[in-house]
């Protein structure tokens, strides 16, 4: 579906993990209903439809500090941000999954995102890189560069660090 302006915003960010392999990181993404364990600033994520990790399942994520006004300022009087996300594609061999939003109060329309976990070397011993790409209709109150920096880059770096830290040294 094309946006009324005839284009979509697209972005891709990545984070390098050195203390864990792609095979070790991938299960965190397969646990689709528990993103709150890893994503910074997301206190609530739980399943509302289907079986965790199965195509078509839907998770409800709430409490993150994203507003449709394009600001992350704490202390503003605004409702809790929420999104309902549906798992629409999964490739365990290629370690990738895609999801869309079936509802939200943050101004996202026609949203599709993909996480991919890629080994850094052939043997899988040199860590991995997590890639997060997305396409969305332009979001009112935001400019693409700020959305990428505030939501995607910061979020993925924080998530990768939490995942990596779960393996200790």
Describe the fold and architecture:
Helices cover 18% and strands 33% of the residues. The chain is built from two helices and seven strands. It has helices at 22-30, 144-165; strands at residues 9-17, 44-49, 58-62, 82-91, 96-104, 112-119, 128-136. Mean pLDDT is 89; it is low at 70-75.
What's the β-strand tally? Answer: 7
Following the backbone from N to C, one meets helices and strands in this order, namely: EHEEEEEEH
Strand content: 25-35%
Helix content: 10-25%
Tally of contiguous helical segments:
2
Sheet/helix structural class: alpha+beta
How far apart are the first and last residues' alpha carbons, in Å?
A: 46 Å
Low-confidence stretches: 70-75
Principal-axis shape: globular
Short description:
The protein has 169 residues and is of the alpha+beta class. It contains 2 helices and 7 strands, in the order βαββββββα. It is globular and about 45 Å long.
Q: Which key features would you list for this structure?
A:
seven-stranded antiparallel β-sheet; alpha+beta; 169 residues; 33% strand; globular
Write the layout of secondary structure elements.
Elements: E1 9-17, H1 22-30, E2 44-49, E3 58-62, E4 82-91, E5 96-104, E6 112-119, E7 128-136, H2 144-165
């Amino acid at each position: 579906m094309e946006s009324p302006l005839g284009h979509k915003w697209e972005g891709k960010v990545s984070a390098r993990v050195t203390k864990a392999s792609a095979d070790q990181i991938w299960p965190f993404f397969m646990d689709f209903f528990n993103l709150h364990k890893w994503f910074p600033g997301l206190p609530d994520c739980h399943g509302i439809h289907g079986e965790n990790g199965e195509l078509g399942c839907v998770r409800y994520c709430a409490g993150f500090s994203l507003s449709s006004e394009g600001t992350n300022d704490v202390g503003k009087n605004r409702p809790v941000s929420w999104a309902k996300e549906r798992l629409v594609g999964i490739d365990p061999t290629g370690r990738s999954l895609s999801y869309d939003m079936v509802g939200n109060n943050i101004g996202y329309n026609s949203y599709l995102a993909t996480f991919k976990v890629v080994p850094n070397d052939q043997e899988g011993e040199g860590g991995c890189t997590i890639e997060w790409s997305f396409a969305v209709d332009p979001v009112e109150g935001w400019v693409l560069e700020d959305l990428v920096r505030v939501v995607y880059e910061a979020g993925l770096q924080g998530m990768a660090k939490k995942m990596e830290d779960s393996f200790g040294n």
